[in-house]
Amino acid sequence: MITFIICFAALVVAYFTYGRFMEKLFGVDVNMKMPSDTSFDGVDYIPLPKWKTFLIQLLNIAGLGPIFGAVLGATYGPVAFLWITMGGIFIGGVHDFASGYISIKMNGASFTEIVNKYLGRGTRYVNLVFMVILMMLVGAVFMVGPAVLLDSLLDIGVPVWVWIILLYYLAATLLPIDKIIGRIYPIFGFVLAFMALGLLYVILTGDYVVPELSFVNMKIDADSFPLIPTLCITIACGAVSGFHATQSPLMARCLTNAKQIRPVFYGAMIAESLIALIWAAIAMAFFGGVAELNATLAANSQSAAYIVDLVCHTTMGKIGAVLALLGVVVAPITSGDTALRGARLMVADFFHIDQRNLLKRVWIALPLFIVAYFITQIDFDVLWRYFAWLNQTLAVATLWVGTLYLAENKRQYIFTMLPATFMTYIITSYLFVSNQFLGLEYVLGSAMGGVLTLGVVAYFIRKIKKMA
């Protein structure tokens, strides 16, 4: 329990300390103009109050990540607490702050435009296609999963539920952001936070024993799932997630003043880390230990949804059942619709299409939704297995963009360069050692990942020197 409490306290303190340091590092000017003021369009550029932008950002970036990812990451043992805490403070929080702030400085530019500027326009078409496909994949997956769950409650057929969710997605993507997202997201954001607070109360007052920090890999078949890099891929949301960078521009267009940057971007990431920390703790403690958690997952097809449902039902009764339903159904849906909304904005920004006209929004959105629907008809379990790695690869790109931005503005870029280097090693070593990819022997694969990382770092050092 002591490890859990220290990590929880560290995350809270970091918001007020390291978060403020991020403001100074990036040079936030409290008097700077916001995109919602300079480019108001009544659709995507709309000023919203801070409490709404915070809750919308939290729900956008969270989805099921800090719940399912934390449960699966807990199978490694309490070392997961350390990754969530250190990752959230020094990597994920920095990542989200950088993506949000740079978007604001570029007048609410989408992630593709930011990458094009700092990583080179030569790959802009490839980047656009890659990002849009990724967003459609997210939207499709977050249609099918909730549809299956909803059909288990009301048997009208999974395809019918898919169409219902698809129609909701279309409305949320096309309508001004304050009409649906701005009204219902804050409610579900409160629900997500309330569920986490309820579990925190259970942890602190119940008879559960939360294990203390150990650097031993407690996962079944630990040799096939080494802590570094696999844990850092398994727990993404809650520590660092590249998907966040695709969502930050949505709220960058809705902030009303620069004082909101830290709470909405760094603060939402810290809140997500706290949620992940709570879920990791209850997952380890609920079954009596990490070994028992591993055994339960093994007996239930590695289903994190089963764990979430059982924990909520047992610890919070009927209220827990409702919260579990909202968590495993609403959370992915709210990430899926903003993923597709983000895809629309990426295409619009790339081709400079004014989004104040509804018909223009429809012409962009319809092809995206058609492709997303057909993706739902494909068995893409294997494809989705690679999303975790692709997600962290996006995080690497964002952290290097933040490094280049700071270097360009003559600021101390070491605070983004170090996490960028670490995450570069994570994705490169995973490429070599994971059985999903090359599956090389661990020492050899790790060494090759290190060599490739050095090459990437050398490339960016040369780019930084050119800025001097």
- CATH fold descriptor: Hydantoin permease
Fraction in helix: over 70%
Shape: globular
Number of helices: 20
Separation, N- and C-terminal Cα atoms: 48 Å
* Mean pLDDT reading: 90
Beta percentage is: under 5%
CATH architecture name: Orthogonal Bundle
CATH class: Mainly Alpha
Elements, N to C (H/E):
HHHHHHHHHHHHHHHHHHHH
Count up the domains.
1
Could you give a short account of the major beta sheet?
none
What is the alpha-carbon Rg in Å? 21 Å
Give the tally of β-strands. Answer: 0
Alpha-beta classification = mainly alpha
Poorly predicted parts: none
Describe this structure in words.
The protein is globular and about 55 Å long. It is 75% helix and 0% strand. The mean pLDDT is 90. The longest helix is centred in the last third of the chain and has 48 residues. The chain has a single domain, classed as Hydantoin permease, CATH 1.10.4160. It contains 20 helices and no strands. The protein starts with a helix and ends with a helix. Helix 1 runs parallel beside helix 6, helix 6 crosses helix 19 and helix 8 runs antiparallel to helix 15. With 468 residues, it is an all-alpha fold.
